[in-house]
Amino acid sequence: MTHILVVEDEAKLAQFIKLELEFEQYQVTVALDGFTGLSSARETKPDLILLDWMLPGISGLEICRRLRQTGDRVPIILLTAKDEVGDRVTGLDAGADDYVIKPFSIEELLARVRANLRREQHEDTDLLQFSDLTLNRSTREVFRGQRSIELTAKEFDLLEYLISHPRQVLTRDQILERVWGYDFMGDSNIIEVYVRYLRLKLEHQQEPRLIQTVRGVGYVLRE
Predict the structure, then answer these.
(1) How is the chain classified by DSSP, letter by letter?
(2) How many CB atoms lie within 10 A of CB 6?
(3) φ, ψ (nearest 5 deg) of residue 42
(4) Mean pLDDT, to the nearest integer, of 147-156?
(5) Which terminus has fewer CB within 10 Å in the chain: N or C?
(6) Mean per-residue pLDDT for 83-92?
(7) Which of 80, 98, 124 corresponds to the end of one domain?
(8) CATH assignment of the domain containing 13
(9) Residue 198: is it exposed, middle or buried by C-beta count within 10 angstroms (0-12/13-18/19+)?
(10) Are 135 and 142 a contacting pair, CB within 8 Å?
């Protein structure tokens, strides 16, 4: 069941939103202040957050910033009475995905929730993960934990092929054909060269090795 976290200090409004979301078959957690909201976001890992801007403790804007600083990409919809263009820009720059102005109709809010969840599900198809390694096909971003890793086009292609087949031993011929093309006429040692490049970047901070050599066969992505 899709889990939504509602961080809203107006208890009656929070309860109203909770009931409407539960009627739509969402699992809902409510937090009534900023610190509880931030803690719930980190501990429960919701699929989406409805986040009031003005909260006791710390603001919704600060919660948004802190989550994004730690690499959390959960969709966030800000709920606020601030309706100036500058306020919207500030909210989006802090990392919010959407913005709903109070007072709002529950139909609009539910539509925004559905739209942001659909967007997240679409992006998930481009997101490949193995252990603490994350690769995004659409943005061509790579992370080891929270550390961003810059790769060349061919390094990215090789890693994408490996992470698409986790724990599967891939032969040198398979890798050459998939990553360099069946008509590649260069040095066959090119694979070893690029595996070495990838290992240097993926293990730059002494992280455990993920690309393993299978002697006489090829390579495999595994712990």
Answers:
(1) --EEEEE-S-HHHHHHHHHHHHHTT-EEEEESSHHHHHHHHHHH--SEEEEESS-SSS-HHHHHHHHHHTT----EEEEES--SHHHHHHHHHTT-SEEEESS--HHHHHHHHHHHHHHHHHHHTTEEEETTEEEETTTTEEEETTEEE---HHHHHHHHHHHTSTT--EEHHHHIIIII-TT--S-TTHHHHHHHHHHHHHTTT-PPP-EEEETTTEEEE--
(2) 26
(3) -75, -35
(4) 92
(5) N
(6) 81
(7) 124
(8) 3.40.50.2300
(9) buried
(10) yes
Q: Are residues 131 and 114 in the same domain?
A: no
Of 90, 124, 158, the residue at which a domain comes to its end is 124
Domain extent, residue 206, equals 127-221
What is the structure's pLDDT at 83? 75
CB 49 within 8 A of CB 116: no
Amino acid at 88: R
Please tell me whether residues 185 and 200 are part of one structural domain.
yes
Give the mean pLDDT of 16-21. Answer: 96
For residue 1, give both structure tokens. 């069941």
Which residues, 6+ apart, have CB-to-CB distance to 180 below 8 Å?
A: 154, 186, 190
HSE (side-chain half, CA atoms, 13 Å) at 4: 26
How many domains does one find in the chain?
2
Give the CATH number, domain containing residue 193: 1.10.10.10
